[in-house]
Amino acid sequence: MRARDVGIEIGTGRPGPWNAITDVDGVGVGYCTVIAGSGHLDVGNGPVRSGVTVVLPHGGRPSVEPIFAGYHRLNGFGELTGLEWLHESGMLSSPIALTNTNSVGVVRDTMIALEAEVPGRTPIMLPVVGETWDGILNDISGQHITPDHVRAAFDDVRSGPIAEGNVGGGTGLQCYGFKGGSGTASRLVGCGEATYTVGVLVQANHGDRRHFEVNGVPVGQVLDRREIPIPSMPSATAVPAGTGSVLAVVATDAPLLPHQLNRLAQRAGLGIAKFGARGDNYSGDLMIAFSTAARGLPDQGPGSTTPAALTVQTLALPHFDGMFAAVIEATAEAILNAMLQAETMEGRDHLVLHALDAERLGDLLDGHGRRRYSLR
Q: Which domains does the chain have, with CATH numbers?
């Protein structure tokens, strides 16, 4: 169940029809989930608990129809390729893919190969690929993600309601010592006579159980390791609590410029912090934000013919507080949806990540009168 299925509300904003990043018109999400084998870790042979997630920002080709984008780094122990060009140009010129730490290369290379198959392809592509470390459950050093898995994720891209939990790049993840994964949420923002949509997709693999709280209730101190165990890795490969990463992809149809999208990406970090995350030293906490409003920004690479000047719109500053609140709430709810939609999973060396039970969480919040509680 998702958070709202059990009456848990994060903030006071109103979600879109699907309460997903796909509420932003044109945005599509695809997954390829790879689960194979069981038992003790045998590097190169499994077990495998991983996958690939793809976010398409619009129905066309971002390489020739880039859109404005921005990003933020809460903590840098992670990777999000393509950021240098995004920072330099202020534009997103590729789909966004998410996977595990050791598979960034094959995902990036496959995205370039896919572009090369398109007639009239752009001669240069710098794909945006992010990662989280799924080595608690997955034979991550075995590098089991293949080009076929990447292609399958692209083939799976769809709008409307999308899967969450143990899917795609979120397959083998932990979050606050519970089973983590992929999650999404959205908010509608009234700006004068216009209404804009903000959608967020997260790959949640972060946080220390001791710090986990929801709507101000210290859930992690009640549901501690004595009630819901946290797997202990072999001493040779043990990692500190909080190790992992969290990626947030923020999409909106509001007309925003790159520096304004940096501000939205930054607020995703506040949404992550709402549940107690502290940007731990060994957690790559990276956020990217894009706007679909100015899709007609032609850039077909060196030698292309484009207009000398382009006209774009931008949202007026008085409306930014509503946008900020939407990002914060949608990011927080997406993380909770990832945890509640995830299912208990056993991986390498019979290690088990237990799911967070929605009904149990709801009862805890009821005990503090916080099932519905504004984050503002």
A: 3-300+310-357 (3.60.70.12)
